[in-house]
């Protein structure tokens, strides 16, 4: 089973798959980053689709999630410690998740042509990678990106780390656009029970890192400053379950003719699962629009499927 030791305290579990290739992995890689309390199985609806398109597919469990290491966060962390912080200090900022995933890709000799597909909390790490490593990322897909929320709303809903977890649970449990009545009971149970399995202190650290922190990447104003305009050099596709979720990108972030904003309504926050065929169709058409489908197909012609990966550590 593949694990990657990102730091002395953090081991990242991941699955590495390729379409039929007998000699070497494909030139193009899709990195799929799930949302808070979620894991790599959130992408079971997209992995076969991407393999059929010719991508190598890397699905990690981010730190604190799934089968990856989940040490309790260090006390009194109220801002991003930075890349040079002591490895003994544990934080759950998306910047640190991005560093973990960059190190994972580097260990696999993946240094370019990466399509990042991300959901919810995962969109913060995706944007961090796209902005700071433009030679690595060839495209970024954001599903219900967190940066739709202005700071005033973040201050109201997530005023302190102590209130962050209960506020997020209230948000998920309130129905509405997040979880409308059209969502099947089995899906609500799956998401709820999986969230209950994560240590509340880790959940609180993740939520407060993006929304309570005044410099959190989940705040609209912060994200626009750090990620907006022409700071992202690659094509971007933003898909939301309502106009609210895509508003920031529609107003601030879309600059090129290869960027696109799409709304898929009726099934809430996990639209890529509950309307997977519609989402995959949108994704496929956008990949064609930006020219990635033809490039990927050409790079994987005549290959056969195999599974790669690291060693359990």
UniProtKB/TrEMBL annotation:
One Gene Ontology cellular component term attached to this UniProt record is:
membrane
Q: Name one Pfam family in it.
A: Abhydrolase_1
Q: Which InterPro entries match?
A: AB_hydrolase_1, AB_hydrolase_fold, AB_hydrolase_sf, Epox_hydrolase-like
Going by the entry's taxonomy, the superkingdom of the source organism is recorded as Eukaryota
Any GO BP annotation: acylglycerol catabolic process
Q: Where is the signal peptide?
A: none
| GO MF terms held by the record | monoacylglycerol lipase activity
> Which residue stretches belong to region Disordered?
61-85
**AB hydrolase-1 domain location:** 31-157
Q: What is this protein called?
A: Non-heme chloroperoxidase
């Amino acid at each position: 089973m593949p694990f990657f030791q990102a730091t002395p305290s953090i081991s990242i579990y991941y699955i590495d798959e390729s379409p039929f290739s007998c000699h070497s992995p494909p030139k193009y890689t899709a990195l799929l980053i799930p949302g808070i309390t979620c894991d790599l199985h959130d992408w079971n609806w997209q992995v076969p689709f991407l393999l059929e398109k010719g991508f190598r597919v890397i699905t990690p469990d981010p730190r604190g999630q799934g089968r990856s290491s989940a040490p309790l966060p260090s006390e009194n962390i109220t801002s991003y410690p930075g890349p040079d912080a002591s490895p003994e200090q544990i934080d759950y900022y998306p910047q640190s998740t991005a560093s973990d995933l960059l190190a994972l890709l580097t260990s696999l000799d993946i240094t370019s042509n990466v399509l990042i597909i991300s959901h919810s909390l995962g969109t913060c790490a995706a944007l961090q990678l796209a902005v700071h490593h433009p030679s690595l990322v060839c495209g970024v897909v954001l599903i219900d990106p967190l940066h739709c929320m202005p700071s005033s709303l973040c201050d109201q809903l997530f005023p302190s780390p102590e209130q962050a977890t209960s506020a997020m649970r209230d948000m998920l449990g309130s129905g509405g656009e997040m979880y409308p009545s059209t969502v099947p009971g089995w899906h609500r149970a799956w998401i709820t029970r999986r969230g209950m399995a994560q240590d509340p202190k880790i959940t609180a650290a993740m939520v407060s890192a993006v929304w309570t922190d005044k410099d959190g990447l989940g705040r609209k104003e912060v994200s626009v400053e750090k990620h907006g305009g022409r700071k992202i050099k690659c094509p971007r596709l933003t898909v939301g379950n309502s106009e609210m979720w895509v508003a920031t990108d529609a107003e601030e972030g879309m600059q090129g003719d290869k960027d696109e904003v799409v709304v898929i309504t009726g099934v809430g926050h996990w639209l890529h699962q509950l309307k997977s065929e519609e989402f995959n169709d949108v994704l496929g058409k956008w990949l064609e629009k930006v020219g990635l489908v033809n490039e990927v197909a050409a790079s994987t012609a005549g290959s056969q499927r195999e599974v790669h990966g690291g060693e359990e550590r």
